């Protein structure tokens, strides 16, 4: 009996088994090689093959966002971009997909004509973990939100709140009088409490008591939360959502207070909304045309009359929080810098005081807003303050859409450069306000530049050109809704304080070094402090 021949079966090598025999060091080498090839390929594309490759700018900015991010982290973005404009011209590429410009015609095209949507950058400014008008990216959605509060900020309506603004400013005068000019005052702290009371009045219908707490030396929780919120936003933008809750538990009382600033404001706003809603339900309010209506009441009334989602309670809370943060920080900073200029420019202070004395026989009685607007030097002083120290001078980022009204094809033409859809573009007030062809000696604080010189040809054209370049509140349909309120407060506060006090600074406390501008979307002094002395003027 013969046996069957044995058959040797040979299996092809298994790739999985082969991979198992590759040394770990080889895997590491492969991974590093692949990573390097990807980085090199990306760099080559960004530098030479990208649709943005022809746009002027530093090569290291075109390669990666890292370079600009380092300047953002150092609070130097505005000045860095200004330096790029001075070197490369009015159009500069500052990132693989980001182009900035400094040009009036292009500004109008982007923000006023085409009304490009905002970039995702603004999501770092969420309040109550929810959108509000400023963080709503699509233009159409923002327009729907804006309708709910726009009538509140009409100038005729806001002027009805001037008596309340005057009362709050009088409280500031009393606080300064009690200091008797013997000790310096922290302007950011004092003016923050002023603005919290003012905005609480216009938004909720009553003062929050911030100035009363300040006068008694009691820490005002709401003012502190508003002060902390920008820091929270900056840090939050760099930390993934999954890690944020862990970071908030770090064992530091100050850090936890900063992390909780959003919740602190939300609780304050929600409480006022509930109180206002209860009053409205108990006694329905029938407003006559022209009546003074707090913002919360207006939005709640609109909510009753509308089923639009933008008027949900959560959105009303977020909107009111957004108005608190935006209105308090910006005006506080600008007031601080305005009075610092008065402290070091006695010529400006004397000129301003002389004009104010003509209209303020009683130094504790502030003229109405219409009268304040007729004071040439006061208005020139405030305009120059907004030009040099505009509190929000940073990039206003927008995104090129897939289609534009100017072209059938996709993309957007910017001063001869074709930008593909998705490109982030923007200008900044810092640079628009420092165009030397429009503002000679742009770094010099010179209120007189806003005054017309009689008998000089072309004055109207010169002043009009400067006004077109002035954009301290933004530009276009996304311009700051609260700009009229800021204009009222700035004039009332400057008029009342400058008329009653001589302002000075101890150079060891407050000087050009301590007041160096740092920008984190909004600006602040390098030391976040501005200590000045207010000495009561003799009658």
TrEMBL record:
Its cofactor is heme. InterPro entries: Cyt_P450 (IPR001128), Cyt_P450_E_grp-I (IPR002401), Cyt_P450_sf (IPR036396), Cytochrome_P450_monoxygenase (IPR050121). Pathway: Secondary metabolite biosynthesis. One of its GO terms (molecular function) is oxidoreductase activity, acting on paired donors, with incorporation or reduction of molecular oxygen. The chain crosses the membrane at residues 27-48. Pfam families: p450 (PF00067). The keyword Hydrolase does not apply. The keyword Heme applies. Keywords: Heme, Iron, Membrane, Metal-binding, Monooxygenase, Oxidoreductase, Transmembrane, Transmembrane helix. Heme binds at residue 480. Belongs to the cytochrome P450 family. This is Cytochrome P450. It comes from Dichomitus squalens.
């Amino acid at each position: 009996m013969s046996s069957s021949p044995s058959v040797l079966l040979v299996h092809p090598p298994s790739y999985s088994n082969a991979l198992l025999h590759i040394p770990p060091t080889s895997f590491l080498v492969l991974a590093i090689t692949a990573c390097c090839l990807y980085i090199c390929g990306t760099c080559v594309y960004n530098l030479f093959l990208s649709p943005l490759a022809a746009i002027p700018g530093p090569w290291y900015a075109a390669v990666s966002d890292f370079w600009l991010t380092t300047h953002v982290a150092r609070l130097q973005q505005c000045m860095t971009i200004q330096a790029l404009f001075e070197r490369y011209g009015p159009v500069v590429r500052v990132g693989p997909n980001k182009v900035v410009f400094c040009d009036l015609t292009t500004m109008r095209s982007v923000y006023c004509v085409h009304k490009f949507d905002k970039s995702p950058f603004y999501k770092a400014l969420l309040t109550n973990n929810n959108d509000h008008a400023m963080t709503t990216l699509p233009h159409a959605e923002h327009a729907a939100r804006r309708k709910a509060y726009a009538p509140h900020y009409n100038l005729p309506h806001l002027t009805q709140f001037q008596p309340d603004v005057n009362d709050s400013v009088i409280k500031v005068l009393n606080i300064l009088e009690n200091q008797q000019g013997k000790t310096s005052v922290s302007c950011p702290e004092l003016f923050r409490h002023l603005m919290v009371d003012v905005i609480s009045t216009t938004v909720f219908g009553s003062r929050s008591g911030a100035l009363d707490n300040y006068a008694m030396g009691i820490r005002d929780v709401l003012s502190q939360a508003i002060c902390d919120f920008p820091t929270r936003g900056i840090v939050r933008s760099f930390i993934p959502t999954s890690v944020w809750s862990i970071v908030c538990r770090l064992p530091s009382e100050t850090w936890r207070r900063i992390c909780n600033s959003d919740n602190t404001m939300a609780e304050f706003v929600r409480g006022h909304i509930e109180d206002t809603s209860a009053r409205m339900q108990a006694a329905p309010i029938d407003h006559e045309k022209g009546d003074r209506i707090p913002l919360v009441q207006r939005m709640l009334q609109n909510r009753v009359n509308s089923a639009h989602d933008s008027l949900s309670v959560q959105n009303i809370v977020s909107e009111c929080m957004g108005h608190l943060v935006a209105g308090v920080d910006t005006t506080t900073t600008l007031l601080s810098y305005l009075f610092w200029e008065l402290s070091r420019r006695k010529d400006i202070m004397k000129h301003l005081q002389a004009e104010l004395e003509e209209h303020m026989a009683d130094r504790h009685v502030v003229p109405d807003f219409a009268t304040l607007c007729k004071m040439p030097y006061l208005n020139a002083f405030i305009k120059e303050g907004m030009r040099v120290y505009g509190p929000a001078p940073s990039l206003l980022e927008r995104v090129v859409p897939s289609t534009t009204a100017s072209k059938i094809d996709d993309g957007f033409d910017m001063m001869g450069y074709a930008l593909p859809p998705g490109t982030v573009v923007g200008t900044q007030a810092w640079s628009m306000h420092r165009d030397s062809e429009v503002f000679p000696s742009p770094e010099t604080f010179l209120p007189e530049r806003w005054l017309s010189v009689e008998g000089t040809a072309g004055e109207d054209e010169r002043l009009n050109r400067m006004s077109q370049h002035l954009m301290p509140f933004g530009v276009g349909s996304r311009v700051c809704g609260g700009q009229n309120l800021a204009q009222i407060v700035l004039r009332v506060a400057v008029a009342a304080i400058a008329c009653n006090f001589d302002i000075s600074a101890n150079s060891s406390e407050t000087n050009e070094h301590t007041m160096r501008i740092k920008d984190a979307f909004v600006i602040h002094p390098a030391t976040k402090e501005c200590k000045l002395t207010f000495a009561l003027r003799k009658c």
